[in-house]
Design a protein that fits this description.
This protein is 27% helix and 22% strand. The protein has three domains: 164 residues, Galactose-binding domain-like (Jelly Rolls, Sandwich); 133 residues, Sandwich (Jelly Rolls); 344 residues, Glycosyltransferase (Alpha/alpha barrel), CATH 1.50.10.10. The strands form five sheets. Strands 11, 15, 16, 17, 18, 19, 20, 21, 22 and 23 form a ten-stranded mixed beta sheet that branches. A hairpin with a 5-residue loop joins β8 and β9. The protein has 15 helices and 26 strands. It has 685 residues and is of the alpha+beta class. α8 packs parallel to α10.
Length: 685
């Protein structure tokens, strides 16, 4: 915990550039060899070095106005008479889903085990601050989900090549000013991350890195790359490619030597396209780092931010360089905290799927539950419902989920959203004021399951008022039939044909709404909400179910709802998941058997990985069809295991190839080797 004395001592500071931009700073202090713990908070991101060795990275994310304090024990790294403690902080002023735009700061106190202050940021003068000039901020914003791409000019700033191990780096020193606004400091909830594991890439295409003759030289990096570098056989000897054997997440490492004045690009992706590295598959995911190097310069590089990849490519825009090593320092949930690292039974491919689920979880659970660790690193609702199940099963705890949900509850309100609505992902910038009205429903169901399973903290009391405010928001769109109709925002249930069946009265949304009302009635002993839930259920059965399948939506015409005939698989699974059907009644068991007997129904829009396939898997398990579940899991997931060793956002490699929700396959697979029929609670045990 963050003790009160530490919170009182922490003083956020910063040094603004002459043009008023925050950019990046290096804070340096020298300390003796002694047991010491560093309490540190920052915005946006920091790296902690001791004697030039990277020993910490953070912080854990929190909403605007709050800051989580990491506690890093650096005792074992203080091995010299005088030790150099360096903290690099980068502040971003662009909107993104990863680290919200806010006033930059650093607050840090180095203390002994008995709470004596050894060094502190601020007026004591223990730390000195320096501008890091090598980072180029005049770059294109390639991704709306991530911040600015990393770009470094060591040709113009050779003094910055080795600066993290020096007590007096040859950089411009700047004056620290105490920030006018102090965030509320709160403890880190997620467990610390081990960043000592390093993976070396296997060189699979070895070539001299020299500029392609005749390549274009326009100003747009994206155009230059797209025009000149598909990186297939036509690229000849212009690139090198490293293979990390499976998708991994962390900090890119490379040893680079320039024989001429050069401009170098590192790029990466989670897989190859038809055997080739093609930057155009994932260019919108901020997967470039640019360097300018002078002839003769050598660089031991490590990226400031964490990225996700299996393949790392290097190629030149001008000059000639050599990449002597390429690899990655892992940034993922500590594998030592996984209590069920392997599947106890099963075939080799089933065990491979299980391991892929474990890896997918680890890479999406460093400080909050994320959707994907590469493209955006954002804390999305709905995804978290499933990833939280994996966390409890794999770790026996719910620390990361607790941090994730706490972030949603810390702010008093969300200024860019309608009253009663929740952000779709958080903490994150939301310049378009967009929201998914279905996603708060998944949050309520997650909190309800969390309370029922006694999984970590019980947020049912803290969420009550906001849940009721959300209900009040939804009631504005209640139609004469008692259902929700034409909800505003980005209405969405999954990446399949079902996304086109949203207009009018959307029955899957009403199924989720009925489940939330029923949950609230149970949690808060509110008979009116329970009655409202049952009435919605009865109306859905009367309007949506045609005797064979549930229809997805109805459009109002001349004052009456007319069923569209649009039908999707996920609509059927949500009918079961949300309690619209009654498994105690024979005809519903017959309907379920018809649904499960075939993995595809021509009259139903097929599910995708996110999120209908997970609901199908759960229905197979609750029906006791363990063998069928394993068969379908192998059929739909084995290609993912083979290509990336992780589980994907979609059935095909069109998007993220490491998506957190799919880690729920770990408890699903273990459950499939039990001996009897199971309910959802048993699946999670």
């Amino acid at each position: 915990m963050v003790v009160e004395r530490v919170v009182e001592i922490l003083r956020p500071v910063w040094a603004w550039a002459a043009d008023g931009t925050p950019k990046s700073l290096l804070f340096v202090a020298t300390v003796p060899a002694a047991p010491a713990v560093l309490d540190i908070a920052a915005s946006a991101l920091y790296r902690l070095f001791v004697n030039g060795e990277l020993v910490g990275y953070g912080p854990a994310r929190a909403p605007l106005g709050f800051a989580r304090v990491d506690q890093v024990d650096i005792s074992r790294f203080l091995t010299h008479m005088e030790n150099v403690v360096s903290i690099e902080v980068v502040a971003y002023t662009v909107e993104n889903f990863y680290v919200p735009r806010q006033t930059p700061f650093l607050a840090a106190v180095l203390r002994s085990p008995n709470e004596d202050v050894l060094a502190a940021i601020g007026e004591t003068g223990d730390f000195r601050a320096y501008r890091l000039p090598q980072r180029d901020w005049n770059v294109e914003k390639i991704s709306c989900q991530r911040d600015l791409m990393e770009s470094y000019d060591f040709k113009a700033h050779p003094e910055a090549l080795e600066c993290f191990s020096s007590a007096h780096p040859p950089l411009p020193e700047v004056k620290m000013l105490e920030c006018a606004e102090t965030p509320k400091f709160i403890p880190r909830v997620a467990p610390p991350v081990d960043i000592s594991v390093i993976y070396s890439g296997r060189l699979v295409h070895s070539a001299s890195l020299r500029h392609l003759p005749g390549a274009s030289s326009g100003n747009s990096l994206r155009r230059r790359l797209e025009n000149d570098y598909a990186l297939d056989d036509a690229a000849g000897d212009a690139f090198q490619l490293f293979d990390l054997d499976r998708v991994r997440t962390g900090f890119i490492m490379a040893e680079i030597a320039a024989s001429e004045d050069s401009e170098l690009i590192l790029s990466w992706d989670e897989l190859l396209v038809d055997g080739h590295f093609d930057i155009r598959r994932f260019y919108w995911a901020n997967n470039f780092i640019r360097f300018r190097l002078a002839a003769g310069q050598r660089l031991h590089f490590e990226s400031f931010e964490a990225y996700t990849m299996r393949y790392l490519a290097a190629f030149v825009l001008s000059g000639a360089v050599e990449i002597r090593k390429g690899g990655l320092r892992e940034y993922a949930f500590d594998s030592g905290r996984i209590i069920r690292p392997e599947l106890s039974k099963g075939s080799e491919i089933e065990k491979g799927i299980y391991l892929a689920a474990v890896e997918t979880f680890r890479q999406n659970a460093v400080d909050i539950l994320m959707d994907c660790p590469g493209r955006e690193r954002a804390g999305w609702l709905c995804d978290s419902f499933f990833t939280a199940r994996a966390e409890q099963f794999l770790t026996g705890r719910a620390d990361v989920e607790d941090a994730f949900i706490e972030n949603f509850l810390l702010p008093g309100h969300y200024p860019s959203l309608p009253d009663g609505m929740f952000p779709m992902c958080f903490p994150a910038d939301n310049p378009n004021c967009s929201f998914i009205p279905q996603w708060p429903m998944w949050l309520f169901l997650e909190i309800g399951e969390k309370q029922r399973m006694k999984r970590g903290r019980d947020f049912s009391g803290a969420i009550k008022d906001r849940m009721f405010n959300f209900f009040a928001f939804c009631e504005k769109f209640r139609n004469p039939e008692g259902l929700l109709e034409d909800l505003p925002g980005w209405n969405f249930v999954e990446w399949s044909g079902a996304k086109d069946f949203i207009a009018g009265t959307h029955f899957p949304t009403n199924m989720l709404f009925a489940a939330c009302l029923r949950l609230a009635g149970e949690l808060y002993h509110d008979d009116a909400l329970s009655h409202r839930s049952e009435k919605i259920r009865e109306t859905i059965l009367a309007l949506s179910f045609d005797g064979s399948w549930f229809n997805d939506n109805a459009i109002r015409s001349c004052g009456r709802l007319e069923i569209t005939g649009n039908k999707s698989e996920i609509c059927q699974y949500l009918a079961d998941f949300c309690g619209i059907t009654d498994p105690k009644m024979r005809h519903w068991n017959e309907w379920r058997d018809k649904l499960l007997n075939k993995s595809r129904h021509g009259e139903l829009a097929a599910v995708n990985m996110f999120v209908g396939r997970m609901l199908r898997f759960e229905l197979l398990l609750s029906a006791g069809r363990f063998g069928q579940f394993r068969k379908e899991a192998v059929e739909t997931l084995s290609h993912m295991v083979e290509r990336t060793g992780t589980l994907w956002e979609m059935d095909e490699a069109k998007a993220s190839c490491c998506h957190g929700f799919a880690s729920v396959l770990a408890p699903y697979l273990q459950t499939s080797y039990s001996d009897s029929r199971v309910g959802s609670e048993d699946i999670l045990e």
